[in-house]
Write a structure and sequence with these properties.
Residues 19-178 form the Glycosyltransferase subfamily 4-like N-terminal domain. Helices cover 40% and strands 16% of the residues. It is of the alpha/beta class. The strands form two sheets. Strands 3-2-1-4-5-6-7 form a seven-stranded parallel sheet, with helices on both faces. The two termini are 23 Å apart.
Length: 378
């Protein structure tokens, strides 16, 4: 590091600038710290990726040169020794583990904080790999207590860390994701050229869901709920924004249920968009049918756009965001009948958009940043 370059107040570590919830939350935090007057570095194992251009101006990017995460250990040791940031924030289990090892080897005064965005016990139960089911939890149990702070993005994740890894309750702090930003609120006002949202009458019978087309989001349950509502709501339609490996399976599920695909039917799969918020601000309802969620950033974004939300009570974030049903119904995972009932009732009697927006503002980056600053003593 150059002699005239002062150590950063905050360093944020991530594997790469790929499109993902954790990566976007890191960028939101970087913007928040910078806006609050702190110097910020983003340290990436590989500093390439589609989100690289969204790094806020004024944030230094440190590229560790790529490779596997374990291979980053000596690179991170050198980073700590040469850059000596005041505080270092990591997320994702492998990155957390390597960060803690490097920090210990470097023997620097940097305070290190690790975050976790998933229910670890569920993730390990789902895996068929020995290293995921046995080795990784054992390593985390030994390493995590060495952190200056452990951050869970939901109450459910915090409880799981305490029970599954045996961490002391006082060592785990719940800080929700900074899922809402001024940029999201601005993009919500952009025009949308989808015909189902062209007029208030069209939008009133259109629901929306957003997410990667994979097993986690369980879109077939959403489609079954729409099918159940066809008798009483024959004009109901659903737009599912996202892309992923289950596109063919989801399309087949719609066809099996007699739901026509495309803008002439009841289900449209237009693919990934960088601005789902403009859809959220116009649709009658946002629905999440996920089997699990670490937090549920899209829930917050929908609320911020003034869009009513119906969600499965998936572990572990939706209950936090919707305050156990106060700001939107929560239904059992995989229960299409319950989801259909909740959709119908919410369409009949939605909460005022101002109330939904006010709830979302508790997850605005400016509000969330206050909790980070308190924990990190900056």
């Amino acid at each position: 590091m150059s002699q005239d370059l002062k150590p950063a107040d905050v360093a944020l570590f991530l594997p790469a600038f790929t499109i993902g919830g954790v990566e976007r939350m890191r960028l939101n935090l970087a913007q928040g710290f910078l806006k609050a007057g702190y110097s910020v570095e983003m340290v990436a194992l590989d500093a390439s990726g589609p989100l690289r251009n969204e790094v806020p101006e004024g944030v230094r990017v440190i590229d560790l040169g790529g490779g596997r995460m374990l291979g980053a250990l000596p690179k991170l040791v050198r980073y700590f020794q040469h850059h000596k940031p005041r505080t270092f924030l990591s997320a994702l289990d492998y990155a957390n583990l390597v960060s803690l090892w490097a920090h210990g080897i470097a023997r620097v005064d940097t305070r290190i904080y690790i975050g976790t965005h998933k229910v670890l016990s569920l993730a390990t139960a789902e895996s068929v790999l020995l290293r995921e089911k046995v080795v990784m939890p054992a390593l985390l149990r030994r390493a995590y207590p060495r952190a200056d702070g452990i951050i869970a993005v939901s109450d459910g994740i915090a409880d799981d860390l305490v029970k599954y890894l045996g961490l002391p309750q006082k060592r785990v702090t719940v800080i929700h994701n900074p899922a809402l930003t001024d940029k999201v609120l601005a993009q919500a006002q952009y025009p949308v050229e989808h015909p189902w949202l062209a007029t208030p009458e069209d939008a009133a019978r259109t629901i929306i869901s957003v997410g990667r087309l994979d097993r986690q989001k369980d879109f077939p349950t959403l489609l079954r709920s729409v099918h159940k509502l066809r008798k009483t709501r024959p004009h109901l339609r659903v737009i599912i924004l996202g892309e992923g490996p289950d596109r063919t399976r989801i399309a087949a599920a719609a066809t099996t249920l007699g739901l026509e695909l495309g803008q002439g039917g009841q289900v449209d799969l237009p693919g990934f968009t960088t601005n789902p918020y403009a859809y959220m601000s116009r649709a009658a309802l946002f629905v999440s049918s996920s089997e699990w969620e670490g937090f549920g950033n899209v829930h917050v974004e929908a609320l911020g756009c003034g869009c009513p939300v119906v969600s499965t009570d998936s572990p572990s974030g939706p209950a936090d965001i919707l305050e156990n049903g106060k700001y939107g119904p929560l239904v059992p995972v995989g229960d299409a009948a319950a989801l259909a009932t909740a959709i119908d009732q919410t369409l009949k009697d939605p909460l005022p958009s101002e109330q939904l927006h006010a709830r979302a503002m508790t997850f605005h980056v400016d509000r969330v940043l206050e909790n980070y600053l308190l924990l990190m003593q900056l």
